[in-house]
Amino acid sequence: MNAALPQLSIRDLDVVYESRGSAHHALKGVSLEVRAGEMLALVGESGSGKSTLGRAILGLLPESAHIQRGSIKVGDTEIVGLPERALRRIRGARVALIPQDPAHSLDPVRTIGAQLVEAVHLHEPRSNIATTRRMLVGLLERVGIKEPERRLHQYPHELSGGMRQRVLIAAAIAQRPALIVADEPTSALDVSVQVQIMALLAELRHEMGTAMLFITHDLGLASEQADRVAVLQHGTLCETGETKALFANPRTPYTRRLLADLPLFHEARAPRRAEGPREDAIVVSHLTYAYKGAGGRPGHKAVRDISFNVVAGQTHGIVGESGSGKTTLLRCLLGLITPDSGSVHILGENPARVEGATRRALRRAVQFVYQNPHVSFDPRNRAADILAEPLINAGLRDRSVRAERVRAMLERVQLPPAVLERRAANMSGGQSQRLAIARALLCDPKILILDEVVSALDVSVQAEILTLLETLQRQLDLTYVFVSHDLAVVRRIADTVSIIRAGEQVEHGPTETVFSTPHDDYTKRLLAAIPGRDLIRPAVLA
Amino acid sequence: MIRYILSRAAQALLVLWGAFTLSFVLLQVMPGDAVLIKFQDPELGLSPQQISDIRASYGADESAFVQYAHVLGRTLAGQLGYSIETGVPVSRMLHAAYPTTLRLAVVSFGGAIMLAAAFATAALLAPLRPLRAALRLVPGLASGIPVFWLEIVAIQLVSFHWKLVPVVGVSGWAAAVLPGLALAIPISAPLTQVFLSAAERVMAQPFIDVLRARGASPLRILYAHVLPNALPPTLTISGLVFGEILAGAVVTETVFGLDGLGQLAQQAVANQDVAVLQAIILISVAGFVVINFTVDALHPLIDPRIRRTQAGGAA
């Protein structure tokens, strides 16, 4: 494999973003090579410049960015300085992109067939439509899509996320490109689908001898999939090497820290003994809820017969893939919908039944933190307004008292007072998540419902937020319901865990037990799908 | 689907009846009536007794309810009545005025669409960001231009100075060319604004980058992908704009001396010619209803994601 020709070679690449006179060096002196049939994983945190590199290779840098220095060669063609027309002939034909977000990467108003035919016709304008469609049927079969003829007539919204990503892969390989840039191709997909897609990419790579640049924030996934790994920090390549060697013996402190922050490296939460007998904060028994179908007919059962209880001061993890019924379950906990059968008791009250003052008190006692704080904040509001709101709602009129409580809360969530003047839109992911937690805590809750709160964050920030949540739980005696698709994260933070699949609770118990001796097949498969498991199995996972 | 069409038709009838009733009430509330305006001129030398006889002969002295029942019954039977001012059947007046308005609407709307398409293409694909930003401001300015001023300038330059299109002594389509094109400019402004903002939202989506990464040209992306995605909001605003011109463009008709619906409406208001006014209101509302229905029917053809929900929740 090492003798193979480099399909991509980058030398001393500098990319600069310019806005209003100030320049930001996104990439500084980056050099790397990817050979035919090889996968190079480009890992780094957000803002490290890994997506900029991917765009530079495709000649698709935004207008505000330009290549200051260096060379990018695809095969023996120099990309830097090539006119747009010539680039268009290379894009899609010799370099292809597999995008991050399959849900928004296909044109929603055109059929799958029309989009795939277009992908071919852009480079073979004279090819016959019927022949092309026959070729596409074969291609869709190759990427693992059943009933390809039918799919060609369907629209993107009729396909699942995994299937859409397969269609995008088919479009990418249609011209047998020498190089594929895969930009976080599985980060929007469920873990079990991720495994299938990565396997497909490996197969295609070996079969067609394509070089692949795999851009990812997930070190675990990189360790399993890539032949070599390049670590990017603030636009500089800080370490490149064979995957096994690099992970076994990381040379730079940055790589060591990235690895240490992987949730997998933390011990599973030891079963904690409550000081004295403690009451249950949440009791869910035999909860069933079905959405109403058309015309009031009983519809799809979203959750069936779910039971668990959460001891006050502890954390219950809920793990499930998309469509598993997690959201429905949370809506029942919050009293937004009334279960068809079974019951929910929060702090001894039934949230769907209480009225008046008790209902308001319960609403304040149970606070919700969302996955994406950028969406749940008004982007034009300053942090100070966002934090004052719950206090104003609680009837706290005195400005100075409010300011004092806000200041104390900032200290608790470890945010500098300077953020108060900043708008939500101008904060980093970690900062806005701390802000969201602060806002929830200002209601003096007993229970926090945390819905995928660390899923959108870099590993190092993820580790900080998890530590913060643990500290807050101890200090304020909080009870958590922690929803996540990431088993490694749940294993670190939860005392007890429920695994939910298609509305059914397939496994339930203390986290240690579920992770060390899973008895359900689905749980076993999920555990096996945790990326990077092999890397550290001897050290942490028994 | 049949049920959907029937329910829309029922809605349309309800809207027509509502507009009819509302306009009747408004015209009743106004002081005086058409008969008084026509006959109370002292020069006619009619005594109050004669005037009230005339009013009785028109049924203007009946109670509002009786008049309403009478007018509604007549309209339902397909009779639009007679103009109080001229005594001519209203249907004949409409028949004379409508072709002018329709020609003006077709020319101005067609012109507006072409203008909007050309301008939007330029504003989205211009090479430099500052140039695009500058072009983006033009529709807003264009919608601020007073129509009558624009039209007077058009007549002066295009017709009198350059002698390209005659405006005096022409009829039919030829008479609609210059006013139509002049009217197209202010009409195209809202179309362009709505389309541009929709197109910018579409162009920020990841699939546009994916298309560029496949080697598609900007023009191809714009016409094959951005256009159909940005069309629905543009279609909605187009319906409103088209409905408005169908109801008559008073200012343009006045400047160019055209006898369209707008002129007819203006005279009817001045004379409180209730029968004519109600007929114009009815025909305008009917125009809006038809256009809205067409727009709603087109949406699912453009966006497959709303097809299923409209078929009656067979999901």
Please outline what is shown here.
The complex is a heterodimer of chains A (542) and B (315). With 542 residues, chain A is of the alpha/beta class.
Structural account:
The complex is a heterodimer of chains A (542) and B (315). In chain A, 37% of the residues lie in helices and 26% in strands. By secondary structure, chain A is α/β, with parallel strands linked by helices. Chain A folds into 2 domains: 6-264, Rossmann fold; 280-536, P-loop containing nucleotide triphosphate hydrolases (Rossmann fold), CATH 3.40.50. In chain A, the strands form 4 sheets. In chain A, strands 6-7-8-3-9-10 form a 6-stranded mixed beta sheet, sandwiched between helices. In chain A, strands 15-16-17-13-18-19 form a 6-stranded mixed beta sheet. A 4-stranded antiparallel beta sheet of chain A has the order 2-1-4-5, with helices on one face. In chain A, helix 17 links the parallel strand 16 (447-451) and strand 17. In chain A, helix 3 runs parallel beside helix 6 (161-173) and helix 6 runs parallel beside helix 7 (191-208). Chain A is globular, with a radius of gyration of 25 Å. Mean pLDDT of chain A is 89; it is low at 537-542. Chain B folds into 2 domains: 2-76, no CATH class; 97-304, MetI-like fold. Chain B contains 14 helices and no strands. Chain B starts with a helix and ends in a 5-residue tail after the last helix. Mean pLDDT of chain B is 87; it is low at 310-315. Classes of the chains: A alpha/beta (542), B mainly alpha (315). Chains A and B meet through helix 2 of A and helix 9 and helix 10 of B.
Distance between the termini of chain A: 34 Å
Query: What is the CATH topology descriptor of the largest domain in chain A?
Result: Rossmann fold
Low-confidence stretches of chain B: 310-315
Q: Helical element count of chain A?
A: 21
What integer value in Å does the Rg of chain B equal?
A: 24 Å
Label the CATH architecture of the largest domain in chain A.
3-Layer(aba) Sandwich
Mean pLDDT reading of chain A: 89
